[in-house]
Amino acid sequence: MAGYGQRFTARLIDFGLVFALNALVNGWFVWRWLLELMPYWREVLRRAQQGNSSTEGLPPIGEQAGLLLVVILVIATALWLAYEVPAMAAGGQTVGKRVMRIRAVPLAADQPLGFGSALSRWTTLGMPTLLWYCAGLGLVLQLVDALSPLFDHPLRQALHDKRAQTVVVQVPRTTGSDTPNDRDQPSGETP
Fold this sequence. Notes:
This protein is mainly alpha-helical. Helix content is 57%, strand content 5%. It has a domain at 4-24 and 65-172. The chain has helices at 4-49, 65-91, 95-100, 114-126, 137-147, 159-164; strands at residues 102-106, 166-170. It is elongated, with a radius of gyration of 23 Å.
């Protein structure tokens, strides 16, 4: 079974890549969202510096802030789905898992997960991103899922692994002696 540290590091690598992708794709929407919030927060900070805790007369948060936040979360969720599901379906590994030499495999057999299992695995962890809008509920659900392997023995399955019936295993290192040597085999040609 893959160790907790390996899984955590792989997830951090993947998070960094998806975050960078989001910065490129979602950057304009985040900028617009911040512009909608700025007048409100500037006034809150100005009042706090003066020791004024009054909330009367604060400028309203921009009308588009809520819609922009939903758009940002939908795009972020779609990017994560596009990053993770095809890679997991094909070989059970994202970039982070490849770097950390771990792979998700079905409990039943050592074969690729396939699209259905990869999607099932991802939805348990990825779909709560859409609930970040609800007072951070999605983030809490994702944290519970991420910590769940610490309490599952002996398979160390996260909730998303249980749903898709997968386990995360270490990938054995291949050495030069593990690869076939074509020179040791006769060519099949007759002299």
